[in-house]
Amino acid sequence: MNKWRLLPAAFTLVATTAGAQPAGPPGGGAPPPRYALVHAGQVLAVPGRRPEGPATIVVKGDRIERVAPGFIDAAAAGVPAGAAVEVVDLRQRFVLPGLMDAHVHLRSEPSFSRRRTERGDRNTTTPAEAAVNAVIYARRNLAAGFTTVRDLGSDDQSVFAVRNAINAGRIVGPRILVAGSAIAVTGGHGDGTPWDQTADPAVRLADGTCDGADACRAAVRYQYKLGADVIKVTTTGGFGSNTGLEPQLFKDEIEAIIATAHLNGLKVAAHAYSPVAIKDAVRAGIDSIEHGFLLDDEGITLMKKAGTFLVPTLSASYPPPVFRVPNPESVALRNQYRAFERAYAAGVPIAFGTDAGTFTHGDNVKEFELMVRFGMTPADAIRSATVTTAQLFGIEADAGTLEAGKLADLIAVDGDPLADVSVLRRIDFVMKSGRVAKRGGVMQDSLDYLPPGAPFPP
Ligand SMILES: [Zn+2]
């Protein structure tokens, strides 16, 4: 398994730029590591266990060195003399791992498309506009406490560019796992080819549109070639496309897509409503079912046995999407089948995902409130957005908890989210990879992370 190609490069670059001076110290050698001592009133180091505190999270560079009881100083933390050290005062705060959203679309949101429509523009976001949007919306996701997000389908290469700029330290934003264009069949949900260019091979490849196993293998390989971290496939119709909710792929097509992605070490997320399509995808080895509203009992059994994750995206349907045509049918179906409640009760792993982009970026946190409203405990909802998402992404060795050796991705709130998840609406502090992005409720950096004239990291 090709373990998330994003990680090693991202970490190397963070380490390179963290010292700030591109030329390096006199005499050569790596710049001394920076330390941070995060004094936390309470810390939920491992979601699912009990919070502890007071405690000090000792951060060296981009990683957590250890979590020590009490508020300790640099000497007690073992910081070498002369090393840069910052003490972060969160003694009145509740600290938890950075949140993760398994389902966002960074290239747009309703406010943008609505403004365009009101101006009378074509209701199409150009790739250039999408890239600017993605910079802004990625930053907003980070400000909302999401240190890692998965972009599940953006119809151009804009989000690849934004991911790369964030990894290179050029702009601030969450870690992004990018799917590129969703793989879809002609006329299916996710077929974004213009009606008169549906047969153009170049247009089809760029859009991820394919028919037949071989063409679908090529479509997956093309997104991999562009740098995809994950593959998204739309196996049924959806509310946004008026193509119904039934299966749109033959078994050999879904099997070819999943096998090709797995061959390249990429996980596959399936947009799926119909229970038949869900089960076909699970039997073919899909990693996550997105939405999954019509999930039946057999599907639940199969998912539990295979360890397939459900990404419920309750936020997208409840309340209804505000873009295009508001769709009460989506809410009615969700409430009729209660797939989330039934899957949770059965022990199917639930990975937090919202479909932000079909609603305002930064409002992702409302998913927590919906999960709790539909019967999940706050502790399980937070675990779903940290430990479980990390497992789904395959990054559990690096993220999801605040333990020695993990990336220093952490957030703080004023109040106990285990008692009331709505306190997550007000994120006071964000640290990503050991760097403070938000403090006292205010984002700390301008859009440009590097000093003017600094060379791009390699
Ligand atoms: Zn989506």
Q: Helix- and strand-based class?
A: alpha/beta
Principal-axes geometry comes out as globular
Could you name the CATH topology of the largest domain? TIM Barrel
Radius of gyration: 22 Å
Enumerate how many helices there are, as a single number.
15
Strand order within the widest beta sheet: 3-2-1-4-12-13-14-15
**What's the helical proportion of residues?**
25-40%
* CATH architectural type of the largest domain: Alpha-Beta Barrel
CATH class of the largest domain: Alpha Beta
Low-confidence stretches: 1-25
Q: What composes the largest sheet?
A: 8 strands, mixed
Tell me the total number of β-strands: 15
Order of helices and strands: HEEEHEEHHEHEHHEHEHEHEHHHHHEEEE
Q: What small-molecule ligands were found?
A: zinc ion
What's the domain count?
2
Report mean pLDDT, rounded to a whole number: 89
Indicate the proportion of strand residues. Answer: 15-25%
Compute the separation of the termini in Å: 25 Å
